[in-house]
Amino acid sequence: MKIGLVLNPASGRNGRRSFWPTLRRAIEKQGADVSVRETRGLGDAERFARELAVETDLVVAVGGDGTIGEVAGGVLKSGRPDVAFSFIATGTGCDFARNFAISRDPAAIAERLTSATVRLIDAGLLTCDEGNGETVTRHFANIASFGVSGQIVRAVNAARKGRRLPAAMIFFCHSVLQILRYRPCNIRLRLDGEDVYEGPITAVAVANGGWFGGGMNVAPAADVADGFFDVVVMRGAPRLKVVTLMNSIYSGAHLKNPLVSVHRAKLVEAWQIGSEVALIDSDGEAPGRLPARFEVLPGALSLKL
Prior knowledge:
Elements: E1 2-7, H1 16-29, E2 33-38, H2 44-53, E3 58-63, H3 65-77, E4 84-89, H4 106-115, E5 118-129, E6 135-140, E7 143-147, H5 148-160, H6 167-181, E8 185-191, E9 194-207, E10 229-235, H7 239-248, E11 260-265, E12 267-273, E13 280-282, E14 289-304
Parallel strand pairs: 1-2, 1-3, 3-4, 4-14
Antiparallel strand pairs: 5-6, 5-14, 7-9, 7-13, 8-9, 8-12, 9-10, 10-11, 12-14
């Protein structure tokens, strides 16, 4: 069996140096032929995944949500989009991994990668304004969103480049700062061809999986294999109410807030109204801004887990 690992060396926690040699030995002990590609910058993971998809039996993303999303996109854009895909979550938030019950023990991971059965799960396809008038298209495995979440991901990713604080602290501090600075943007939202909302938003999450933002359970009922997005609309509010609303997402209590509504859709379209820019977050990366289109791809990924 040939396994291709797309590794983000910047992702991970303490103990990574001992973890990777142990994991590789455990995989090779299962009789697998392992090929490793290390990323250096944005776009590398997608490119490596496209290449490995035609050379191996299984493509594995090793990193955070951004790496997982890029690798999934690379597989889907490759000449073998149905090749088996898996992941080893080492990022700060690991939000996509929260949708599954998986072990972090190297021996258990090796057993899973070589012996687990394949199940089909959905993916998302995002088309949006890159920010310079050009159109960008990318896949996402977990969640894409826009509003304050788009501003938060940009601030957090910029802070991580030269970080001295723990990653979780960076995320918390910049989340609070961006929420306090956020001015609600006005949008028009269309789901499966029907206009459902027009007005100010705090954020809109287009959810394939249930978690984003480092453990926020934004879409508790989301199912990665049901062929639908759970679309969570958080309408605009004064800053202190937004802080309270965002904090309640960790427990899922935000669904009881009158500012929040949840919808199910296969196609999500959104446009900005007015001068405030609605920035997008896609699996922890920052691809662009509204206008945008989010399309579910039922059963697109052959997940080995």
